[in-house]
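Dear support,

We are seeing what looks like truncated structure output for some complexes. This example has two components. We would appreciate it if you could run it in full and send us the complete token output so we can diff it against ours.
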Amino acid sequence: MRKKYRILLAKPGLDGHDRGIKVVAAALRDAGFEVIYTGLRQTAEMIVEAAIQEDVDAIGMSILSGAHMTLFPAVLDLLKKRKCEHILVFGGGIIPDEDISKLEKKGVGKLFTPGATTGEIIEYLKKALKEGRKEEAVF
Amino acid sequence: MSLLDRFLQKDEVALSRLISYVENQAPDYRKILSSLYSRTGKAYRVGITGPPGAGKSTLVDKLSCDLIQNGNEVGIIAVDPSSPFTGGALLGDRIRMQDLTTKKGIFIRSMATRGSLGGLAFATKEVSLLLDAFGKDFILIETVGVGQIELDIVDACDTTLVVFVPESGDSIQAMKAGLMEIADIFVVNKADREGANRIVSELDMILDVRRKKGEWNYPIVSTEAVNNKGIDDLLKKIKEHRKYITENHLLEKHRKEQIKSELKKIMELKLKELLEKNLSDANLDQLAEKVYSGQEDPYSAGEKILENLNL
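Here is the complete output from our reference environment:
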């Protein structure tokens, strides 16, 4: 087996500030992850479709526009619809604490706010993905 | 329902999962491929290669748009390099294919090279078999940005496009071997830039030596992929090439050659696995001692191990 963790990173919505997500992308790459970066202005549909085609273990979204209460749940709903709830959704951005706990209750993974280090993100992912997913019967 | 059943019912989640099994060489990956192999051979595979930043991903994007508009189903494999130091990779080809993602009939998969040096990932060919079996009419395979000798793509596709940009001009001479030899169609992208005409005429001059009357004429197509210019012309040439190699039985010949190298690869891999299974580290340590102390030479020691494997 030559399994590698695959992570999709995306910037949904309309804000164009991609500095943060690019830093995270480079850090994850350096930590041995395969990072699929899809770029700016993604819809929830585009993100989920790409995540399915790439068979990723996790989706990371960076949202600095304030639309996190809409975009995170939208992605979760679509994943559920496609029966892909095994994909971990995490993220980062300018997100108030009260929203974080609301989103986490809905099933979003860890959300990183300004000041978080790339080391913390890497540690979190390694731990969260360690268990792996349930293997399905092939034949 | 098993993954294979779902695959046969055109479930993309199952396709994607099976691709991972094959890419990761999961225990059952050979069984997966052999049970689907009879469904392959229908897709037409186009390879796109060229130096970094030439516009390969954008070309793939535009070509695919045209192909699906004509009712085709398209699979895309986009390869980017893995780091030789950390094993990680940043796969960014999808950035140029944003509008494609949600279109019907499209399936895009990014692959990291994972140590492979020929411009493709180790399992690219196998993944293209899966897309083929899934019912894709066309499979577009985009290599990593290449220099001169990353030529694995020839072995994985039917028509090869080599993409240049006006700035490649001076390096064309140096590229006479390798990359220049594998192209069926030459693409000069970013043709609105200065120097585009010059590179077309330079290519033309080099190709004149190779072109023979009545044979494939190695066309050069100028494109501006971002502006969607020249794409229909390029698609026309791809279709002409397909017709030419089909009618002249070159496709058949090429595919048989590919099967040969596939067979070799399968056997080599199996042998390697067998060797790794049968040769423990302790064993190797022991042999190293013997060779070091002069009791044995490495050549006969190696022979002996192979004999003991009872192949």
